[in-house]
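User: Second chain of the day. Same drill as before.
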Amino acid sequence: MTLQRMDNVGIVVDDLEAAIAFFVELGMELEGKAQIEGLWADRTVGLDGVRCDIAMMRTPDGHGRLELAKYHTPAAIGARPDNPPHNTLGMHRVMFAVDDIEDVIARLRTHGAELVGELAQYEDSYRLCYVRGPEGIIIALAEQLS
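Assistant: Same format as last time:
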């Protein structure tokens, strides 16, 4: 049996609407929203009494998706430190290819986003940066130059 595809990346957030607005500003589309609860959800995630709202975000090409989840019960647990550096163990970012990196950065700043480091250029190939958005979510942006 082979892997069919990567379906989505899940991100737990406290402010679902702010996270949706951030990713819409990036250029993703809201595919749908749902409330998740019940024994099947408890069994799947290994928690009791799960009730959460999710929003499925889709990239414009339809191939990539993010599942944003706001837990009502049990309450979400904050990670420490609040804004971990990139070399902290675990998953840290999702990278997006963009057409105009400076425009994207400017638009995301209206949603409270900040550069983690700075906008840098890799050879004559890419302009790259890391951006910290709502909930401390880090995304990477890459603009291909050639």
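The longest strand covers residues 29-37.

User: Great, on to the next one.
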